[in-house]
Design goal:
heterotrimer, A alpha+beta (172), B alpha+beta (782), C alpha+beta (285), A: 172 residues, alpha+beta, Ubiquitin-like (UB roll), DNA polymerase, domain 1, 2 domains, C: 285 residues, Uridine Diphospho-n-acetylenolpyruvylglucosamine Reductase, domain 3, Enolase-like, domain 1, 5-stranded antiparallel beta sheet, 14 strands, 31% helix
Chain lengths: 172, 782, 285
């Protein structure tokens, strides 16, 4: 039993290894240790979802996961969405449809949306709104976020993508 | 080429934000940076007997601990900046850290500086404070009573201000055919931008320069105030608002924490960061609204309103916040007559100190409260005289030929076509079909209701002379510099610092359109007091109407100068030069032309300039508008009330807004959606709840309901366009239309649905239990 | 918000977890998905000396059918339960309830065992556990024992789970053939937790008389409860609209109602009845 713990994880395709306090939250690990500041903290109580990242491909709230719990796992943050070739379709859709204003919640919202599209490639308006239960946006009133997710779903379907691919998995 | 102004282009700021490359305050990391955490009072009102920081100081990793006494002489208390004249205002500044007394739960008592935020947080638990708990007072009405606890010894009855505007003899109401009286509570709400407040301060002991990055809607106002608070000249205090994650009014105010962080950075000569936790934000950042409104409306049986009298008892919280005195007085009072031609009106506002978080501007700031009372009163009046609420609105709306319209409250509405917006909304809605359906559904035990809000609001704060007359401690003009570089690309400098509005897109659209250059060649600089000469802030829907106007005028100056250079090079006179789509051409001779890029090079190289023309191609403008702008529109909300549980579902929401010239319809609609979500939020879910002892019960997002995606149907948004004559763009401002129009539209709709139960009034938020109780008591009466 | 310091150890087997719990002298706490515990740590409402992570014990995950029961490993996440074909086939009620827990992100992390062992009165599963006659397998120092869910929940965040024991699995009784079920939840608009959640399972015999009935309520008070008065009113009777109404009006009788700023005791009592009526109508009419 130790007050320090060694963690290693693959973040956006790159291996990372650190010795940290076991109490360190995953979101702080990403932001402070790895300088991946695209993931934000909005509420502290796992309502707002600004801190959402993919853990082994599934969206989770990184403010409610200890970094030690992600040991040995693979993480994708917003920084891992785009590739050198350009923006990820979800990013492109948020841009096209004006799915963001201040942009603070946006990384988490996009990643939560990826979670939905991986489960349901053709969601209805209502399904999208329900799937956004775990995110709070104060700026947009959600309508253009819903439009963006719809648009991303269509783009991905047309591209024949069955699973929303990440840039880092493409790199791998 | 299609005009860029009015075009729904994608935002220039998005690629950065979408890829995690934005830079919010918490993203800033400086070498040697230490972290601050504030110890906050658990009591709403208590005397501080002793603060013992010894144990905290000795915790490994702790750099320093400061109490209010430790900071004495190092910085001043943080003052308000709106000193309303003629109302016996008793401003109370916020102390850096409380020393003698705490006056609200969450007031900072001490601050820990440590190597990281984990240690800083640990150290808070080691600070011992002995309090002598005093009786607390939360309600503004109770606070004014003679036996109420006093927050400040020299403020009797906790009365911070008493403001009166207009007077109506009692006979007017006594003799009126119809009088409607209603008490309405516009509850306290918590602005809750998704990014909380934060600050990073860096002091250079060699030069004496201080750089403070902070979450600000108006960095120049922060510089003005903090320069005085910290005793640093404005020349050496640089405030930077980096990416700011929403504000909604909460980031206008100057608070103590940012100043304390800067003060300590100077003391310990290390960069200091503080980022507010959400739990702290609920207590430490300004709240909005909290006004008890007693409205009295006189009218005739055939639907004409003859007089309006309103008393506003406003809760200012424990100290006077930056704009705290202005929201329930000027911002509220001047707009109480709404979009209606009401010949007589009068307002009295009591501003009261209580043991609660100070209140200040929240999206709309006073106008939503004004709109709420008049739009609710209209419905009550319509009900009383048995007239359709739309009909009553039609009868009383300010007619087109009355503009510019001088209201009974002494302001001049710039331009409007109120009936047109109403017509358009009704056309989308199909009112008659709805009333049929409502009747049918009621037979089946389903309760539908419709609510209208034909609002107008006062935006685009300016002119500065008015600001002076109402005691606002600053100007309200804006400035811009438009600089064309030798290579032909353009940098635009603006004093209106954005925090989500998309200003970097809309302002660049204005410049690109006028100069005839690609949008990708124009970039905006904002939010840094060292880069931009001055600015009075992004609030009150003034960015486009005032800041955008300055950008437009500065661009005109660029063109004016470029035209002289073009005429010189083309060997003709200035009046012979036409400027279209980026080309200066000699009239009637298309072969003789220069592009703006060519002129930019000539101007900057300065090899051959006409006599009297200085080098470089740059225009600057300082724009002080001649009047406010008055956006307006009609919002219609349809709800269904679940008779069994009291839950309210929004079935339809129609918004027709007239914001004058729309620069970017996509962004404009985004503003409408967001504003409506917040307005509906206030109507149905949001509300700060305090215990009688002053404990904030709704202190996290687990208790305070932020609107979520599934709460809304798609919003049906449309615009009419009535240009404003007060600025060169004809723009009116859009940021606050939704929060202003939505609350009464929703509440009126619920009241309409509840009519079969005889319910006339309920206070927001219309939570299910409240609605259920109203239905039940209505039933009991039957 | 930041947790206070603790040490951390990962258990690789159930036995190891129990040994670590014993060795921690009351200072140890089990960490499952963390979605109940981490928020408490961040508020510093709990300050354990040691966290014993049971997240990587393979035997604690998975869904299997044993006789007329579906057994779910305690560390199986909501998401895994939701996508399990056995659950979809035999326990639609459980799937329906879990589908309403939190949000996608939370369902990816939160676990069945964590939910039950945490015993948040506003959680959705305690009621489901009562309605589906859940049996909890508890592994202690002296071996394993099976405990009925009914009687396990003692109060808010208090259960009958001994300090050095571990909930290893939860088994749910498969309702009889032809039974219908539903979980209706009145969610708090901010937290998403149940203000009132009503589970109902019912089956009719060939004469149209109620032969099986289970009604349980969570969220309304400090502990989830079986609404036996409702069940008694319906069992052995034809479920007419009037009888359902009468039965539903008893839905608050077997529990203690809570009260908070969002919903008073009286309103919760009312909601129990309204939701019970709607649930019963949905499956019986």
């Amino acid at each position: 039993m130790a007050h320090q713990a060694e963690v290693s994880m693959k973040v956006n395709g790159a291996e990372s290894k650190s010795v940290i306090e076991p109490r360190m939250l995953l979101v702080h690990y990403l932001r402070e240790e790895l300088n991946l500041t695209g993931t934000h903290i909005g509420c502290d109580t796992s309502q707002c979802g600004a801190c959402t990242v993919l853990l082994d491909g599934d969206p989770v709230k990184s403010c409610t996961v200890l970094a030690v719990q992600a040991n040995g796992k693979s993480i994708t943050t917003v920084e891992g969405l785009a590739s050198k070739e350009g923006l990820h379709p979800i990013q492109m859709s948020f841009w096209e449809k004006h799915g963001l204003q201040c942009g603070f919640c946006t990384p988490g919202v996009m990643i939560a949306a990826i979670g939905l599209l991986n489960e349901n490639p053709d969601p209805s308006e209502e399904e999208i709104r329900l799937a956004l239960e775990g995110v709070i946006c104060r700026c947009t009133g959600y309508q253009f976020i819903v439009d963006a997710v719809k648009h991303a779903a269509q783009t991905l379907r047309e591209a024949g993508e069955t699973k929303v691919a990440m840039a880092d998995s493409m790199k791998a | 080429m299609a005009s860029l102004i009015g075009s729904a282009v994608r935002r220039k700021e998005d690629p950065r934000l979408l890829t995690g490359n934005g830079c919010f305050t918490d993203d800033i990391k400086l070498t040697g940076m230490v972290h601050a955490a504030f110890l906050r009072s658990p009591h709403a009102h208590a005397r501080i007997i002793r603060v013992d920081t010894e144990k905290a100081r000795s915790l490994p990793g702790v750099t320093a601990v400061f109490t209010g006494l430790d900071l004495a002489g190092k910085m001043k208390a943080v003052p308000a900046m709106w000193f309303l004249p003629g109302c016996d205002l008793k401003p109370k500044d916020r102390p850096a850290l409380a020393t003698d007394k705490v006056r609200y739960a969450g007031e900072a008592v001490a601050v820990v500086i440590a190597e990281n935020r984990y240690v800083a947080r640990d150290a808070l638990d080691l600070i011992e404070v002995d309090y002598e708990v005093l009786p607390a007072v939360v309600s503004q009405e109770l606070a004014m009573q003679d036996d109420a606890a006093l927050l400040h010894d020299d403020v009797p009855n906790n009365l911070a201000l008493l403001w009166k505007a207009g007077e109506i003899p009692d006979e007017v109401f006594a003799d009126a055919e119809v009088v409607v009286k209603q008490r309405l509570y516009n509850q306290r709400v918590i602005p809750s931008p998704m990014e909380t407040r934060g600050a990073v301060a860096q002091y250079n002991p060699g030069s004496g320069e201080m750089t403070l990055w902070c979450t600000s809607q108006n960095p120049h106002i922060h510089r003005l105030i903090y320069a005085d608070v910290l005793g640093i000249p404005e020349t050496k205090l640089r405030i930077i608002a980096p990416d700011v994650g929403g504000g909604f009014g909460a980031k206008i105010a100057t608070y103590t924490e940012e100043a304390v962080v800067a003060c300590i950075a100077r003391e310990i000569q290390k960069p200091v960061k503080w980022v507010e936790e959400r739990k702290e934000h609920f207590m430490a950042t300004s709240h909005g609204r909290d006004e008890v409104l007693e409205v009295e409306l006189a009218g005739t049986k055939d639907g004409r309103i003859t007089a309006l009298r309103v008393t506003n008892t406003a809760n200012l919280g424990a100290y006077l916040s930056t704009f705290g005195a202005g929201c329930p007085t000027i911002d509220f009072g001047l707009m109480v007559t709404g979009a209606y031609a009401i010949p007589q009106a009068a307002v009295v506002t009591y501003g009261v100190y209580t043991n609660t978080t100070p209140t200040d501007a929240y999206r709309g700031a006073g106008k939503p409260e004004a709109t709420y009372q008049i739009e609710r009163a209209i419905d009550l009046f319509a009900d009383k005289i048995g007239m359709d609420p739309v009909e009553v609105r039609r009868i009383n709306l300010v007619p087109n030929d009355a503009f510019p319209y001088n209201s009974a409250m002494g302001v001049t509405y710039d331009s409007g076509d109120y009936q047109k917006a109403l017509d358009k909304a009704l056309e989308i809605f199909d009112y008659e079909a709805f009333r049929e359906e409502q009747k049918e559904q009621r037979q089946k035990g389903k309760y539908l209701g419709v609510g209208f809000s034909t609002y107008v609001e006062l935006c685009g704060f300016g002119p500065s002379a008015v600001a002076g007359a109402i005691g606002f401690q600053g100007g309200v003009w804006e400035n811009s510099t438009v600089r064309v570089h030798p290579g032909g690309t353009v940098t635009v400098f603006t004093g209106t610092s954005p925090h989500g509005q998309g200003t970097a897109t809309t302002f660049c659209q204005i410049v690109a359109e006028k100069l005839g250059v690609p949008l990708s060649d124009v970039e905006l600089v904002s939010g840094d007091t060292q880069s931009v000469s001055m600015g009075w802030g992004t609030y009150g829907s003034r960015a486009t109407a005032v800041g955008g106007a300055a950008v437009s005028l500065a661009t005109d100056r660029v063109i004016e100068k470029a035209r002289k250079i073009a005429a010189h090079e083309l060997e003709t006179t200035v009046d012979q030069i036409e400027f279209i789509a980026g080309q200066f051409t000699v009239k009637g001779d298309l072969s003789r032309s220069r592009t703006i890029q060519q002129i930019a090079r000539s101007a900057n190289y300065a090899w051959n300039l006409p006599e009297g023309v200085e080098p470089a191609l740059e225009g600057q403008s300082f724009f002080d508008p001649s009047n406010f702008v008055y956006p307006f529109g009609t919002h219609i909300c349809v709800v269904e009330v679940d008779e069994g549980t009291g839950e309210v579902e929004i079935k339809r929401y129609i918004a027709v807004d007239d914001v004058g010239r729309v620069i970017n319809p996509l962004l404009a609609e985004g503003q409408v959606h967001g504003g409506i979500a917040q307005g509906v939020g206030q109507a149905l879910w949001e509300g700060a709840v305090y215990t009688e002892q002053g404990q904030l019960q709704s202190g996290t997002f687990m208790d305070y309901t932020m609107p979520k995606a599934r709460f809304f149907p798609p919003i049906e948004s449309a615009f009419t366009e009535t240009l404003s004559p007060v600025n060169p763009l004809g723009a009116k401002g859009i940021g606050e239309t939704g929060t202003t129009a939505a609350p009464p539209a929703v509440v009126n709709a619920v009241m309409d649905a509840l009519k079969p139960f005889g319910v006339a009034a309920l206070d927001m938020p219309l939570t299910p239990e409240k609605v259920w109780r109203a239905i039940r008591s209505g039933r009991d009466k039957e | 918000m930041i947790p206070s310091t603790f040490s951390y150890v990962q258990a690789h087997s159930v036995e190891e977890a129990i040994r670590l719990l014993r060795e921690s002298d009351g200072e140890g706490k089990l960490l499952a998905g963390g979605h109940s515990l981490v928020p408490l740590l961040k508020f510093r409402l709990t300050t354990p000396g040691t966290l014993i992570d049971i997240g990587e014990i393979p035997e604690l995950r998975g869904v299997r059918k044993e006789g007329n029961r579906i057994v779910i490993g305690a560390m199986t996440t909501y998401r895994q339960v939701l996508s399990d074909p056995l659950v979809a086939q035999h326990l639609p009620l459980l799937a329906q309830a879990i589908g309403q827990i939190g949000d996608i992100q939370i369902r990816n992390r939160g676990t069945i065992g964590g939910n039950i062992a945490h015993a948040d009165p506003a959680a959705d599963l305690p009621g489901v556990a009562l309605a589906l006659d859940a049996m909890l397998e508890i592994q202690g120092e002296d071996g394993a024992e099976l405990v009925e869910a009914d009687g396990f929940f003692l109060g808010p965040l208090v259960t009958a789970l001994p300090e050095t024991s571990l909930l290893t699995s939860v088994s749910f009784l498969i309702p009889p053939e032809g039974a219908r079920s539903t979980y209706l939840k009145y969610a708090h608009p901010a937290s998403g937790y149940a203000v009132v959640g009503v589970c109902a399972i019912a089956a009719l015999d060939p004469d149209g008389v109620v032969s099986t009935i289970r009604v349980a309520v969570n969220g309304a008070g400090d502990v989830a409860y079986r609404a036996r008065s409702v069940e008694d009113k319906l069992l052995g009777h034809a479920p007419t609209a009037e009888r359902i109404r009468q039965a539903a009006s008893l839905a608050a009788d077997d529990g203690e109602m809570g009260s908070d700023q969002f919903a008073s005791e009286e309103y919760r009592r009312h909601l129990c009845c309204v939701y019970a009526q709607r649930a019963l109508e949905a499956i019986l009419l």
